[in-house]
Structure formats: C-alpha cells, structure tokens
Amino acid sequence: MPGKLKVRIVAGRDLPIMDRASDLTDAFVEVKFGATNYKTDVQKKSLNPQWNSDWFKFEVDDEDLQDEPLQIRVLDHDTYSAHDVIGKVYIDIDPLLSKDSASVMQGWFPIYDTMHGIRGSVYVVVKVDLFIDTNRFRQSSCGVQFFCSPSIPYGMYPVAILGFVEELVVNDDPEYQWIDKIRTPRASNEARQSLFSKLSGELQRKIGLKVLEMGGNAVIGYRQCFDLEGESGIVVRAIGTAAHLARLQPPPVSPHQSPPVIKDAVKEAPVPEEGTAPPPSPTKLFSSPLPKDVVPPIGPAERVRRQSSDSDLSTTPKGSVGSSGSSGGKATIIQKLMSQQPSLDVMEYPFFTLRSFQPGYLQSLGGVVSARSVKLLDRIHNPDEPETRDAWWIELRQEIRSHAHALGCNAVVGYSESTSICDELIVLSAAGTAALLNLRPEEAILNKEIDFLTCCVCCVFRTSDEGAMSCSPCHIPYDRINTPFPITLENCAVCRHGKVPDVLFTTIEPPGDLPVTGHGCLIQARVCRGKRKLQGEANAAAVSDVLPFMEYELHRQLMHKLKAKSMNSLFGLNVEISVGETLIIGIATATAAFLSALPPPGPLKITGKVCTCPHVHSFF
C-alpha cells in the first residue's frame, strides 16, 4: 500500500546556547526519512526560532513507514567549520497508519542528545496519506494496533482472543564494528539509537503480519526487549497476545430519545498559521464513558485473512442486535461470539501475556510455572541468523507447557520472558501462571442464569447478584489424590466444596470477582550468591547449578514474609535473576493479599539457640 508522508517544521523553543560570543544559536533542521533528506532555512541568533517551513513530502511504501522512523535533526549553523549537533528527534509513524486513527500528528517533541540529554523542543506536524492496496502478498501490517496494557483496552471488547505471538530479529551491533576506531562517542550512540528504532519497527511489522494471518487486528500485552550480546550482535524480541477487538457501539435509539454523545478518541488539532506561534500542545478530546445500555454489535465470523482495508478496530461485524431481554436474541449473540473464538487445543503454545481477566475466563489457578536455561553466546554457529535463539526459547516454552499440563491446566496466563547477559553467558527465563482457562465464557450464559451486561471497558459476564463473588479460581485444577508435588489441601472456606491450597502464587492481577479480605501489601525477597571467575562451559555449569537453589530460597523467604504479614497469596509475582562476574543476584517482588477461600496462615515460629552468656542477661 503506497503512501505519502508530509512533514512540516514549525518552530523551536528553549534551544541551548551554541555561540558563546552572542549567547544565541543559528539553528536549522534536517528532516530525513529513508534515503531522502530536506533542510529548513537557518534562523539566526535565536533560542526560540520560527521556521514555518513548507511541507516536506516523501513517497514511500507502507512497510517502509512501519520500519523506518522519521528523523528530525536540529543543528547550529557554522560558516567555517562543521555544523554543531543540538540533538535529534525520532518519530514513529505507525500510530497514523490505522484506518480509524487520526491522519495528523503534531506537537512539541523534546530534542534529545545522547551526550547532554534534553536540549529544548521542536514543533513538528506529520501527515500521512495512504492509498488502498488489496495485494495479499504485501509485507506490511498496517491496521494492527499494539497495546502494552496487560488487559483489554478501554472502550473495546474481545471478539476473539487468538493466542500467543512472538518474533525475534538479529542485527550487528554498531558498537563493535570497524568504524568504531574513527567514530566519536556521539556518532556511536546515534548509530545505536537509530538502529534500535529501525529494528523496533521491523519487529512490530513482522508480528503484525502474524496477527493478520490469524484473523486478528490487535496485540495486547505487547512486550519488547533488547538483548545486547556484545560481538554476537543485538537481538530484539517481542511477545504478545493476538486478538480481534471491536469498539463498543451505542444501541439504536427511539425518535423520542436523545442519542448518547460519543466523541472520537483524538481530535485533530489546528495547524499553526504562518507567522503565528504554535499552541503549547495539540488539542485532544477523549471519549466520554458510554451509557450502561450500550450493547456491542455482533456479526458473523470472518475467518479469512484480513487486508489493510478491514483490519482496524473500527471495523465491527455488521448486523443488528435484538432486545437484550429476549432469551432468543441473547442465545443468538452468544453463539455468534462462540463461533469466532478458536479452541485452546489448536494452539501450539496456549500462552497469554494478559494479566487481567474479566469474570468468567479464569476457572482455576494452578500456580506459578517457570523455566530457566543457561547458554553460551560464543557457541552460536551463525550469530547473524535467529535460528539458534529461536531454538533456545522453544525449549523453554515447551518446558513451561509441560509444567502447566502436569498441574491439570490448559493455558499459561501472565506469561513473560527475560534474559540476563554477562560476557559470553546468557540466562534465559520464562514464567507464568498455569490456569484452567475458558476463552468462551459465553457458554455460561446458555447454561446458567447469567445476564449479559456491557460496561465501558469491555463485555462483562456477571451473575444476577452484582455483589456475588466467585471462589472457583482458588480451587485446584489437578486431582487431589495424584498431586504433582507435596502440598497441603483444605476445603474452600467460601463454598466448603472445592479443595484449595494453603498458599497461592500467581503472576497475574487478582480477578475482579475473587473474594479478597482487607488490603494488599508489597512483599520482596532478595538472594545473593557469590561465584568464581570461570570461563566457558565451567562458568555455565556453575551458574546452572546455583539457579534452582536461589529460586528455592526466594520462595522460602516469600513464604515466611507472607506468614509475618498474615497473608496467604501473591499476585503479580516477578522474579529477576542478574548474573555478574563474581555475583548472582535474585529479586522477587509481588503483592500479598488475603484470599477468603484459602485457609489463614499458621503462626510464625522462630526457633534457634538461646545464648547463655551471663553478660548478655545482665545487659537485658
């Protein structure tokens, strides 16, 4: 899908003093996208220049719009020497490539220098015009939106949660190239910064293509990481949850009823006219909360590859919705929702980076599952190819999946991946919460007396009693006779039927309908272990041997601190392992809570030898 990018440089403010003789700056701007460059006029002797340039136009393909960042470089003009760099601005064009998004981005952007930090700001106006292209072999993923939020975004509801997506890109590190011998520190930093921006856009485009093939239009819980592997290169990897989202729409209103007012998420701000100062920030109008009677439109399933013209969040299946009070209309809506949701059985890795779920999705929580692996970077046969790193992560994901199946669970929620690198050693970690997940909670509406309500966040399934709470996520998903590990089980304190463990560790947020008593508190555990300075396989073996004991010690400390706080569960658990030359550090952080369904913690017992020295007794 070819497109046209237009950029206008309006003004600058609070620029640094570059000319010591006049205490002013002769500033101008270079605009670069791809291999095309433009320059503005020089505004002499001003720290708040007004350029008001014409439109700089770039004609590019949409995949280039996703991969390449728009680079704004602000410089101080010198007649007899090289121009001094004030700083740069990198602008990601991807937010403008969605059909329902604004076509103009404008405002004050901070000017950043890798040596001196923020050095003023520049007002830029960016406009994108896209042309429709139905080529099914295109390499762009325009229209797929990315959300770092670990829950369904505000004002949307999930038509289908499609599963786990991941991608990995490898590139040479400019810091370790030949040109380093003649490169200044600023040039080296800028080369890395520019490369990071390009790799990030390329990775996002490749994940978007996978989402389009799955029939989705969004990625939720998107997480991107950079691994600096030294001479082996730079690895950029990302994970997320593919989903098909739709926006909530107001129901049809009668002629005697005034329709609810729903404004666009972002309203285009006026462009400053010639000779006028730009506004301090672009005008934005956020959507107002939807009325309680708003019902999302549901239509037939679309199990075909989505193109750029129909892969945006504003595109919702067509069809009318009958009265919510009608049982027949309710069943029709539910059946159409169920037809679009794939089964967990067909997913290779039933992993979800979501950490917050609406009532009805989580049937049972099995506990935290984790896996770690120690590798040597200098043993990679071809460092420029991602196959070896992909194989490493596949091993961990398979181990996580087997741990979840051992707990009687069909999915892993709150899933995350991390690394720790020290010289040629890399520690890969993966963790999540094993759960019995139901991606089709609409079935409960057909089998039980549950009302299908809609709030301004997403579809919520509640019982007829709004204050009712569910203790089922606390019940164990595995057979209590053949437990996979020694554990103390008791009857649920709420329903008195299901079996619950004495403690529960999770990496997710507590479900909204889970009975919790009191308020939560922060719990943290730290472990440090020394290690000898070794090389190669001996170093990897030493680290690999100590990791299980460190993780055991972290969990033991968490258990003791839970008892000291009179709590019985942990949510949002995050364990980080950092490896140095002579030290290995582990930190575990979580939020402790008291679940009403679990038994209260027992008394904390302190045992040890008592000092019989007479001097100590005389002191007390």
Describe this structure in words.
InterPro entries: C2_C2CD5, C2_dom, C2_domain_sf, C2CD5, C2CD5_YbjQ-rel_dom. Residues 1-109 form the C2 domain. GO terms for molecular function: calcium-dependent phospholipid binding. The protein is α+β, with helices and mostly antiparallel strands and 620 residues long. It has three domains: 1-133, C2 domain (Immunoglobulin-like, Sandwich), CATH 2.60.40.150; 141-254 and 290-347, 2-Layer Sandwich (Translation Initiation Factor IF3), CATH 3.30.110; 362-437 and 469-595, Translation Initiation Factor IF3, CATH 3.30.110. Helices cover 18% and strands 34% of the residues. It is built from seven helices and 24 strands. The protein has helices at residues 62-67, 185-213, 327-340, 387-406, 443-447, 536-564, 614-619, and strands at residues 2-13, 27-33, 36-39, 56-61, 70-76, 84-91, 104-113, 117-130, 145-147, 156-171, 218-228, 234-247, 351-352, 362-376, 411-422, 425-437, 450-454, 459-463, 489-491, 499-501, 504-505, 516-530, 569-579, 583-595. The strands form seven sheets. The protein has a four-stranded antiparallel β-sheet with strand order 4-1-8-7. Strands 3-2-5-6 form a four-stranded antiparallel β-sheet, with no helix packed on it. The longest helix has 29 residues, at 185-213. It is globular and about 80 Å long. The chain starts with a strand and ends with a helix. Residues 259-275, 279-327 and 444-467 have low confidence and may be disordered.
